[in-house]
Amino acid sequence: MKPLLRRQPPSREPQSAQAVPRSETFGRLMGYVAHYRGALFWVVLAALLNTGLNLAVTYFLGQGINNLVGPRDLDLFRQTALIMLLCGVFGCLALLVQGLLLAKITQRSIYDLRRQLFNHVMTLSLNFFDRRPIGELMSSLSNDTEVIAQFFRTSLNTTLSEATKLVFIVIIMVWLNWQLAIAALTIAPLVLALLSFVSQFSTPAFRQLQGEVAELNGLMEETISGQKVVIAYNRQDESIDSFTEISLAARNAGKRARFIALMTRPVTAILTNLDIALVSLVGGLLAINGRADVGTVAIFLQYTRQLALPITSISNSLDQLLAALSAAERVFNVMDERPAIQNTPASFALPPIQGHVMFKDVNFAYVPNRPVLKHNSFEALPGQKIGLCGPTGAGKSTLINLITRYYDIYSGDILIDGHSIYNVQKDSLRQQIGIVLQEPFLFSDTVMNNLRYARLDATEKDCIEAAKQANAHEFIERLPNGYDTLLAERGSNLSQGQRQLLTIARMMVQNPRLVILDEATSNVDTRTEQHIQEALTRLMAGRTSFVIAHRLSTIRDSDQILVLKSGEIVEQGTHDSLMQQQGLYHELYMSQFKGKLAGVGVGG
Predict the structure, then answer these.
(1) Three-state SS at 78
(2) Which residue of 171, 289, 487, 570 has the smallest Cβ count within 10 Å?
(3) Burial class (CB in 10 A: 0-12, 13-18, 19+), 319
(4) Element (H, E) at 496
(5) Domains, the chain, ordered by start
(6) Helix (H) or strand (E) run with residue 62 in it
(7) Alpha-carbon distance 370 to 476, whole Å?
(8) CA distance 477 to 492
(9) φ, ψ of residue 373 in degrees (nearest 5)
């Protein structure tokens, strides 16, 4: 059976990041390390010192051999041995300093990257989250940054040390004997060509691997979040099949990526052995002809082996580098997203509002050429209660999302107290609007901190008073630790009604001038609904309020009711006037209360 929960393949994501050259991505990634130039200077200095001292050991070893095969000078031999010992000791100390400083730099760099990524995500508009599954976004915040961190922690140190060693060895070889240097360096262009060839194939493979891992994280987040639905419909086996399918895809992508990258290791080893054989041959011929002494040939053989080590180490780190670059592409793809909702340079802070709201011929579409709201106009006076109703998908929630400027309209205008919301700073607008959603959201924190979330400077007295006004104080007091009770994720250790009462109390702490209620009582029982309605009545008193209603009884007393159909306000007026029109509102009301209106007039 084909798995039911299989998502679309990762290729559906924007491909803009793939067009960026790897060198540009690498340079941008290394910019986080280069930010700490002072510490990096000492790292490079320690690396140079460590490399130079280690290579000096090999050089003095050759001098010692020459001392043994020629006229022997015991004092010189002891002096050479002491120098080699000191070089080894100080080389180890330099390596220790290099490792400690580089670890400090890399940890700070990955901290900067994670912080900038998260901070940037917090600035993005809702349309970004509409098209990016939360699980895949979480993969960028966790898995992709961890891949980069792994590269910073291990491969970066290796690459820096080995690249420094490579440069030193080449310089010393050319200085000692240019003919042997040419023989020894024959391997270099071959290995570089190999690495370039392999990267052409392995980079797409690592990019696919990161995409599959993101897909896997997205599936896990969605399945675990919807576990109640999975259990209710007995779809555990299908969920396992979906997980297995994507896991296999990730495994296969990983196998391809690692296999291609790991092919460099045996080929590099073969080239290295051939290089050593070539140096031995050329060195032997030069020694026989008296153009090189035995010590120099011995030094070259050691340097040739050491030349192979950095090349091998760098090639061995190729898979981590390519994985980090693929992860960095995904991270930078998110960081390059620009918020769709931005303040203009002329934006000003919205002064305290009275709550006079006007819609002027507002048109909106999530996708171009597919209008969701069309030519909507209405006026809400300060303190009025505005009810919104209509069939599912009519555009009720979309309309109120425009008031908070979660999305920008395509044409028309929205004014609050005479100010276009597109001319004011969005933060100053949202601070004065309170929202209670159909599905209440609470954080994994104490009850008190959840209430204070709306206004961080609120006192405990403010929060408790708000809870009393919201009919939440009594049940909070019955919790194990009262207001200090730690809530589970999304407040799952509370009932639906209790969570909703807390969100109402949280809004009361905020004390907004304009209130939006999106079917706030649709998921609770009748008794709880009564408590919530009492709390909402206190909340809306003296404030302009917009109420989306599933139960039309909740908006019957509205000063004005907007009836939407297919994205348009087709009727507006009071309950009595709309009932007299015998239109869509009358139809919705009669169908909802059929059997309960005996003996009651249509306007009654």
Answers:
(1) helix
(2) 289
(3) buried
(4) helix 496-510
(5) 23-335 (1.20.1560.10), 351-432+544-594 (3.40.50.300)
(6) helix 37-69
(7) 46
(8) 18
(9) -120, 135
Q: Which amino acid is at 536?
A: L
Tokens 């069309």 sit at which residue? 374
Helix H segments across 541-598?
A: 575-581, 584-592
The torsion defined by the Cα of 403, 408, 413 and 416, in degrees rounded to 10, comes to 30
Short-list 108, 107, 134, CA closest to 121: 134
3-class DSSP state for residue 584?
helix
Phi, psi of 64 (to 5 degrees): -65, -40
Tell how strand 357-364 and strand 373-380 pair up: antiparallel
- CA-to-CA dists, residue 394 to 325, 449, 563, 575, 587, angstroms: 45, 36, 9, 19, 15
Other C-beta atoms within 10 Å of 104: how many? 13
Q: Which two tokens stand for residue 369?
A: 């050429």
Structure tokens at 175: 């200085």
For residue 568, the number of C-alpha atoms closer than 13 Å in the C-beta half-sphere is 6
Tally of CA atoms within 13 A in the half-sphere of 344 that contains its CB = 9
- Return the structure tokens found at 178: 């240019």
Q: For residue 213, what are its two tokens?
A: 């891992």
Q: What is the mean pLDDT of the chain?
A: 79
Pair of tokens at residue 87: 């070089």
Residue 324 above 90 pLDDT? no
The most confident of 49-53, 292-296, 517-521, by mean pLDDT: 49-53
Strands 568-573 and 560-565: antiparallel
Beta bridge partners of 563: 389, 571
* 139 burial type by CB count under 10 A (0-12 exposed, 13-18 middle, 19+ buried): buried
With b meaning 16 or more CB within 10 Å and e meaning fewer, what string describes 50-69? Answer: bbbbbbbbbbbbbbbbbbee
Query: Mind giving me the DSSP string for 269-332?
Result: HHHHHHHHHHHHHHHHHHHHTTSS-HHHHHHHHHHHHHHHHHHHHHHHTHHHHHHHHHHHHHHH
- Bridge partners for 387 per DSSP: 547, 561
Other beta carbons within 10 angstroms of residue 490's beta carbon come to 15
Return the pLDDT at 169. 75
